[in-house]
Each structure stands twice: as C-alpha cells, then as structure tokens.
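Homework-ish question, so no full write-ups if that breaks the rules, but can someone show me the predicted structure for this set?
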Amino acid sequence: MKIARLLQLFFFLSIIIISSCSDNDEEFGDTSLISFEEATFSEDQFIIYLTEDPNGKTFSFGAGTYNFTNTIPLADIENLTIKGAGIDETYFDFSNSASTSGEGIAAMDCSNLLFCGFTIQNTNGGNAITARNITGLRIDGVGTVWPESSPDNGAYGIYPVESDDVIVENCYAQAAVDAGIYSGQNQRVILRNNRMTQNVFGMEAENNIDVEIYDNEFYLNTTGLLVYDLAGVDKIKSGSNCKVYNNTFTDNNQSNFAELGSGLAADVPPGFGILYSATSSLEITNNTFVDNESGAIIGVAYFLVDFNFDPSTDSLFTFLNEDIYIHDNSYSSGGGTFNIAGILDRPAGPLVWYTFALNGNVRPDIFLDQQDYTAVGAPYAGTRAVIEESSDVILLEANFAQAGENPPIVIITSTSLDDFTGTGTTHSDFDLVDVPSDCE
Amino acid sequence: MRKNIYVLVLLSLMLLGSSCNIENEDDPINEYGNIDLNKVPYNKLSDYSFFTGDMNELNPGQGVYSYDLTAPLFSDYTAKERFIYLPEGTNMEYQGDFSVLNFPIGTIIIKNFIYYKDVRDKSLGRTIIETRLLVRKETKWKPFLYKWNDEQTEATRLIVGGTATASTIIENGNLKEITRYVIPRELDCRTCHNLNKEMTPIGLKPANLNRPMDDDLSLNQMDNFVEQGILNGSPVSMSQIPDYSDSTLGPIIRGRAYLDANCAFCHRQGGTANANGLYINWDFEGEKIHTGIFKIPTNYNAPQLQYDIVPGNPDESILLYRMTQTEAPDVMPQIGRSINHNEGIEIIREYIYNIE
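A: Not a homework solution, just the prediction itself:
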C-alpha cells in the first residue's frame, strides 16, 4: 500500500517536472506545437527551433507585439505553420530589425507553408513576406502594414514568387511602395477576399499561369490592380489564364508616393482600377468600379511600360496583350478626385492627360492601347480585346506607336464598343494540387 | 580452452581499443575516422581536430587540404583560409569546369574569416573571427558556424549569429574599420549557398580552382589535387576564371570575373535570385536581357534608376548603385557586406562604362 502511494506520488511529481520542462508545448507530449507568449518570447529560441528541426512544426504566437531584430528565415522545410491569435491581435514588428534584406519573413525552398492570424508591421524597406520556390502556400488572415505612405516602406507586403499552388486570402495590405499583395512567376494562384489600401498598387499579378482574383476590396491605392508580364524573367516568360471577378475598386486616386523615377510602380499615374499590360488570356468580369477617376480599366502594350524595350533581347517574351475579355462589370465615376497634380507628377502622366484632352476631356471607363506599331515600321500589331458592357460605358482607344516622340504623337483610333465585339476567351478552370488546409 | 582464447582475444581487443583512445587524448592529431558524422555538429571547433598544434595557426592535419580561389567573394575585407576535409580513402570528382566538384559524404569544407592587422605584413598578427563549416551529411549539405574566443584558443558553435568589430590595413595601405561585422545565423547560409533548391558549396568549381598554388607557383592547384590522390576525372585542360584584381586585364573580363564571384551565386539560373532573371555568372549563355543590359529589376525600386545596367553609364545602373549602399534594402549582396568594396566598385564602374 505504502509503495503504491509512493509510486503514485512519484508518477505525479514526474508529470509536474516533465510538464514544467516543456512549457513551450501546449499539449503534453505534442512536440509539433510550439507556443510563444509576448512576455517570455525569445527570438533566439525561435531561430534555434527553425534551425534544428522545423519540419512539421506549428509555431503559435499569443496576442501581443513581438519585436524582431532580424528577418525570420525559413528554408528547406516541409510542413510548417506560423499562426497568431488574429490579424488584429498578434503583431510582428520589425522597426528595430537590423536585417540587410529588410524583409520580415523570408521563406525559400519549402513545401506546405501556412501563415495565419498575425500582422507584420514596419519592415525596414524590404517585403513583409517573401516566399520563393514554395510548393503549397496558404496565407490566411495576415496583415502587412506600414503606418504611412512613405517611399521608405517595403516594396511589397506579401510576395510569393516561383511557387506552385498559392492561396492568399482574408489578408490586409497597407502602404506598400510597390504592391500590397503580389504574385509573380507562380502557377495555380488564388487571391481572394483581401483588402488593399494606400499602396501604390493594391495588388500585382506578374508572369503567372492560372490565377483567380476575386472578392477583394481595392480602395485608396494609387491604382488598384496590376496584371502584367515583365520582360527578362525566366521561369514564366508570359503569363496567362487570369480571371479577375467579383472585386470592388473604389476611389483609387492616391498620389504615387514611390520615389520618382524608381522603377515601374513609381511611373504609374493615379486613378485606375485595373492596369494590364503584355499579358494574355485575361478575363475581367462582374467587378464594381467606383470613382477610379482616370479610368476603371487601362490596357497597354509593354512599350508604354518601358520605352526602351528591345524585343530582340528577350525573344520569347510577348509584349502585346492577347485574348483579353472584359464583360459585365459595373462602372461609376465622378465622386472621387481626378488627381491632375498626381497624374502630371509621373512620367506616364502627361501622355494620359494629353490623350484625355484629345478626346475632348472626356475620361473613359475603359482606356486601351491599339497596340499597332506598323505605322512606325515595326511588325507588331495586336488584336483587340473583346468587350461586352452596357452601352453607356465610355471607351477610348488610341495608337501610342509614336508616343515616345517629342512631342508625342497620339492618334485616337476608337471610342465605340462596337469595335470590340467577338467571342471572348473565358477563363479555364484549374485545381490547386496541394495546399495546406485552412487555419482551423 | 577455446573459451579462454576467446576471452583473451576480447581482452586484448579492449586493451587495443583503450590504448588507441589514450593516444588520441595525448595527441589531438586528426586521425582518419575521428569525425563521427552522426555527432556533427560538435559544440567546439577543436572537437573536429582539423588542425595540428595551436589551433589558431590553422595548420591542416591528416585529411585536411588547403585550397585557394582565383576570384573570391568580398566579405568586409576579411582574409580567408580555406580547407577541405575528406574522409579517409575518398576523393572529389570533376563534373564540369563550372560545376562545383562532387564531394563524398562526410566532406567538410572549412572557411576561416580572419582580419590581419596589416595584410602587407602578416607577422604583425591577426584575429580569426569565425570558422564556417559546410558538412556533407548524407546527401545534403549542412552549415555550422563557430565563433572564436578573444584568446583565439577555441571556437564555439553559434546558431543565432552575432556581430563583431575589427580593423585592418589593406593592400593599398588604407585602414579599414569594420564596425558591424555580421556573423550570419546558420539559417542565413542558405541564402547564398543554394542551387536548384539544394544547399551547395559555391567557390569550389574547377574554373575557380584552376590556378597556381600559393606556395609553389610552378604547381597547378587542380594538378596537385590529382597528385595527392584526392581528385578524379579532371581533364587536362580546363577553363580559368581570371583574377579580377589583376589590373593588367581588360575591364570587361575583370568585371565579369568580379560579378561571377560576388553576385552570381544568387544571380544565376537556379540560384536564389533566379526569379529576377539577372544571370551574371561567367559561363552564362543566353538572351541579352539576362545580362542586365536595359533590364528592369523584378523586386526593387531604385531612386531615379530604371535598369540594372545602362551601357556606358555606370551612374545610371542599379547594379553599381546597390554595390555602393550598405543599408537595407539597397545593399547587395544582401548579406555578408557591411562596408563598401571600393576596389570592386571601380572594377564594375569600368566594366559598365566599357559595355557597348
């Protein structure tokens, strides 16, 4: 009897000892869950976990603000979750980070990554989240925030690149100096139910294959959404099969706050809902455009993005838009500010302004480049988009082949929807192959 | 009787075993088989017994071979002493002039980061800051970092990185103060040591090893590996990346050699920056836009600058601009440099100026 009681006591004590040793484990014996609390968090301990055996782990951060001194590096990991207590509960702050890449989280060469329920703020000039070469990525309920629209902010909030099977959903992106949420050179991507505000671009899809962008809110950005292909990349030279639907684009007229002359994003004048360029198989439907005062949709060839582009240096790149289908969207404007100062402040702005003036100062809902360069002896002539919209939608198409001349020569080539009829190419459905399940 | 013999044999084996151990303790010379790959990483650098005598002399023990690179990476003006440890009876294999040698399992690449008081007179003394190991554990390479103590008697593993300060007088007599030398976190190694999603050594490619031995200019380093019996399959003639510090060479050649050593570990096909499409490795053959000429970067906004390289115009080229920066997010490379490499900047300035 006595021995039995002793044994019982011993057993009890050992449980206490063991559990006190492993206070990082939320459940006894569950070594895959590592929980951190603000008061006791050690960045070094977190880094050691990530170095030694991160596979299959879930790192859970309680409510509060966690101050990081360097980028969170994730490499060569299978199955990893980083979760917080909520987008407005758990903050990862990089104000005092010494990282020379300036990034918040930098993940590379991983499979099945899941980030959910936290906000990354104040990264020092780098992206809040960079994810390279990930197979299976879900970012759900994550914020990426800089407090003010400053040229010193990070270029991108969420930046998955060269990855397969990517979902970004329920996220909030504020004040990125390029794009709040980005997807580049990815295959099978869903960007849905996100909110983007006060960025230069709310969202950017660049050189992807198979994308759906839906149920997002774009408001108070310089321009809402950019869908385009960039020359000089290797993995996916030309993007295709992107569908943009059920989104709202509201009052995207903010002055561009990127430092003037610093790359493509900095060149963009304010006031557009969607800008597309050099892309193919893009379907834009059932979106609501409100008060994007330079035009709900603008589509241009790559030459207007980069006047110096020489197609012979990148022979597989397609620099004209092909198979664009715009239909059944809702357009309204006039309630926002037509940001003339902001437009003229940017390199492409005077051309926009000049073209509107040529059109009797009537600003279009849909503003298109005719993409015909044969007049200047170049063998490039694109096909027109197919547009099915109500008859009161204002269209403006112009030839910009000689827009690089001084003074620029712009010729208005159409203002009639009747020139844009045909059979539109609808989006091809695709299935994501392998993405971590959601956060619950 | 049989049983007795058996016991005796066993006893003598035990004796033998223990005497071997005693020998080891007396003399920490690296005997082959000393390094138990399953126990790596050791906590102390001395546990590997790479070096004979005082460890800080860095005199290689058995199975440890020194090597040098023609075109090295700039790391805040550190001098580097490099070694390869090969398990007994193994050797390296040639697999292409520009491909890193194929190393046997158990290989450890050892790189020591050192500041001399004055590189022009090494007898004035030096400080070893850190020793980085790349260990081929089974099929994968793993990085382990060791920080030296102030007494320079031992180095201890440091997973989470750190900083150091140093000063050194470089070849041209200038004093360089390094106020924020960064010892990377082990996880950071992967940022550069990466090819096609696998961790990999960088400098150990034949075109960068094909050079005279430092201590015997009549002997070629690759030939010497063959003579020592640790390299198989290398052809008679191999490519040679030039020495970018050789001012008798032309600006284009020097520039390309510099970019290969200092940028191309990421900026090549399959490197970490593959997505950016800038491929400036010496052996790149492909479309012109990938060399950076009139190429817009994918992930960077430079003030007033649009293209990686504007031929003939270094000051309008992002590539040069980022070499002159030391702060996030502009600095390139993104880790490993806290001060400018003025000599490298001049090489690249001349390079871009001479591109037509």
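Now go work out the reasoning yourself. Hint: Chain B touches chain A through 48 residues (CB under 8 Å).
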